[in-house]
Design brief:
The chain is an alpha/beta fold. The chain starts with a strand and ends with a helix.
Length: 294
Amino acid sequence: MILKFCEDNFLFFITHTKYFDILCLFVILFFIVLFFLVQKDEFLQKFKNNDFKRFLTILSLGLFTGFFVFLFVWILNAKSFNGCSTKFNMNIYTKIKNNVSLTTKKIDSSMIIIIGDSRMEFIKNDKNIQLPRNVEIVAKSGASLEWFEEYGLKETKKIVSKNKNEFDNIFIVVNMGVNDVLYISEYMKNADYYFADYLELAEYNSKIDLYVLSVNPIMEKKLKKYKPQIVRTNTEIDKFNKSLTKKISDAKSDNIFYCDSNNELNFDTDDGLHYTRETNRNIINYIVNKCVKY
C-alpha cells in the first residue's frame, strides 16, 4: 500500500509540503535549543558582559516569533491546506516494503493518463486540487461512448506516442459510462463496445497497463432535485460495472485490470452527480495509491 507522508505522518502537517515542513521543524528545533542554551551560565561563561546574554535571548525569541508570523502568512497566501501532492510533485509517496528505492524509481518513471467525463473534467479544472506532475487527464463534460470512440481514444493515443520514450510505464485509467445511462437506451450493450475499445487501447503500446475504474455512484434523490430531467439509477450503474468486471475476468488479459472505487470509497456530491472537492481528492488519491500497480 502506498502512503502519503504528507497526510499520514504527523511530522508533515505544518504546511503539507514535505521539504518546507522539514525546514520549519529544523528552524523550530534550532530556536528551542538556542533559547535553552542562553539560559545556561556554562554556555556564556566566556562572555563577561551579561548584556550579551540578554541580547541573545531577545534575538532568539524575536526570530522565533518572526518565523511563526512568516509561516502563518505564507500558509494563508499559499493555501497550503488545499491538499497534498504526490511523489510526482513535491511530497513523497513511498511503498511500505523492503525495497523502497526501487518502488520510488518505478513511480518516477511512470505516467498516468486518466480518461473520463465531466467528473474528471471538474478535477482537471479545479486549481485547488494539486494533480501529480505525471498525471494527465483527457475528459469532456457530457462524454459518453460516442465521444470516447471519436475523440478520447485518439487523444490518448497521441499522448502515449508523445511520451512513450520518456516513461518506462504508461498507466491508462478509464472512468466512463455514467452518461451512457442518459444518452443510450441500450445501456448494457455499451459495456461490450467499451471493452472492445479498451482491448484496442491496451494493445496500442507495450508499455501500457490499462485500468478500468468503476462507474461511481450517484445520489438519486439529490440528482432528481437539481436535475429532474436526468434519469439515472445506481442499479443500472451496478449492472454496468458487473458486466465490465466479468468481461475483464473472462479476457484474462495481462495488462487490463479493474479498480472498484465504487465500493471502496465514500462519495459526497454537490448536485447528486458531480462530487465535492474532497471526494474528488479521494478519487485521485485512490487512483494513484491503490488502483495503479507500479
